[in-house]
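Continuing from the previous page of notes. For each protein in this section, the sequence appears first, followed by its structure tokens. Read the first protein now.
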Amino acid sequence: MNDVPDAATEPRRPTRRHWRVGLIRGRIELRHLLRNPKELSGHLTNVVVALLVAAYVSDDVPGTDTPMSHLVLAGFAAYLLFQIGLVNLPQMLVTEREEGVLLRLRATPGGIPAYLVAKCLLVVVTAVGTLALLLATTALLVDGPLPRGPGGWLTLLWVTTLGLLAVVPLGAAIGAVLPNPREALALIMLPTMALLITSGAVFPITALPVPVQQVASVFPLKWMAQGLRSALLPDSARAAEAAGSWELPMVALVLTAWAVLGFLLAIPLLRRAARRESGSRLTARHHKAAQSGAVSP
């Protein structure tokens, strides 16, 4: 039996008040992120790695006159969005669950919806800010790619938006079922790195065996990278794509499908995780962590 009852006025979806509270909470979390050098350095490190890789790669994309470094940077931009949604967000959720945040929110009317609004704001601003920093820095320091004309900027906008909609709800669903922060990173990173290698984000996907291409086409990273390449690279780079074109309608279709699936999974899984939280469960987890030496008793 739960030690903390659900708030009687807890709604099934955010109301205007909960959106306002969530946005306020999200702004506070953003300020904390900007004032936390350790967390901020993780995002800055990704940009530095991209700069180093772009400076090292010097060949052209096979069959085109597009620098390979531009293809790598476009893929790296997609991976940053993917990582923030499917690696960073689940870790945040499972860590705060272990610390009793969900338990406290259950006793607050509208606490869970406001919490989710805040997390969405934090993730979206972090992702867009990191992407903007990556593109601006690489353009200035290593002649990195930027969109060509209004059409390129519009494509960058909708691919980024749909990409985040595809991975953020999925990341929330994963965070709701992960066992604990100590195992979360190990469970997430291996499949994430496998997708990075097999999705054509760091080299032309046509270099991979056809069965690998077919498997990668099921997941959102492949289409996020392809959509961003269409925004950042010249049309001549289409020759390196598996279909010989950017396939933007398919990019939109696959990312939309993953967004719908993510929302269908995230909402019930997060509600289930919140309902299962109780004072006794929290105490038992802390006791187990202390016994294993993960935290001080």
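Done with the first. The second protein uses the same format. Note its length before scrolling.
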Amino acid sequence: MKKEILASLLVLASYGASAQESKATWVNNLKLSGYGITQYQYSGQSGAKANSFNIRLVRVSLDGRILNDVAWKAQIQLNGNTSTLGSSPRIVDLFAEWQKYGYFKVKLGQFKRPFTFENPMHPVDQGFMGYAQNVTSLAGFNDRVGAHSSNGRDIGLQLQGDFLKNSNGRNLLHYQVGIFNGQGINVKDVDQRKDIIGGIWVMPVAGMRLGVFGWEGSYARKGDWSETDAVGNTVEHKGAIRSLSQHRYAISGEYVVNDWTFRSEYIHSTGNAFAKTYQDSKTASDCTLSSNGNKADGFYVLAIAPIIKKQMHVKARYDLYRKTGEWASAKTFYEIGADYEFTKNLEISAEYARVNDRTLAKHDYDMVDVQVSFRF
């Protein structure tokens, strides 16, 4: 009997060791990471002066691989309050991507929309105090259409890949195309229409990308509203879905070489917007249209130059956005700044901006922004 018990214990021990080894292999595939950005910002806008410290972003993510071919990621944003949808702590990423072939990858879940070069960039690596106005307003951050803040993300399915290698083995062409709900993060589809978003770019020399992007879709709400028909009659809608078609394109260029960065993007949008941003159940059903019309566009160009390679940089950006597609609504930032990396995980950056906002009685004012970023 003792021999049988001993044999059973040896079998269990062997099984436990195998299980631990298997678990250890799985754990080794996991990576916990995150970052935080603290901020001080001054704005001299007449009638709305501001001078405040702020926690811009705090995010934590967990990612790993399954059977080598599938990568997955889950990321949450921790800072904010719990009173509004746009600024509450929330899930920002949750997806899996099959990556067996470099020329054909399939991603499913919630992740960045495949629109513009700047949208998918890490907030620290993007280089300035915030994403450009056209990217923020027309790529799904604080979108002009009235959607809640979605950090450039949506829920859907995407195909992407690189191909056409040159003699050095470097790919010359990249494509990406996806189908999305069109409602932003953590929200189901409303009008059952889907957004088709995609881009293609060429890489003629190392570090250079020249691309074009397109976006055909809609944004919708369900509620009450009235409109005037073709013959001038007022038509009342109760508990109905109001779907606003959206048509957008972007033209993008970037060149990164020897720690120098040059990037520029133009975005154009056609499509009406809702007057109020979706923040809660009340605004979710507010179908009143914005007075900004159905046109908007924006353009930015920037340069980042190394003073000490991979450690200290100076930078400048011209950032223009026209929320109605007309010069009377133009808002322009003229920015200069610098950053210093103490280590790869700790950076300080500072910027001065002269702002010209033609929608204000006093067009011009100054801004100062200082940010300390850390990663782990």
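What the second structure shows: Residues 350 and 370 are 4 Å apart (CA to CA). Helices lie at 2-28, 133-138, 281-284. We return to this in next week's lecture.
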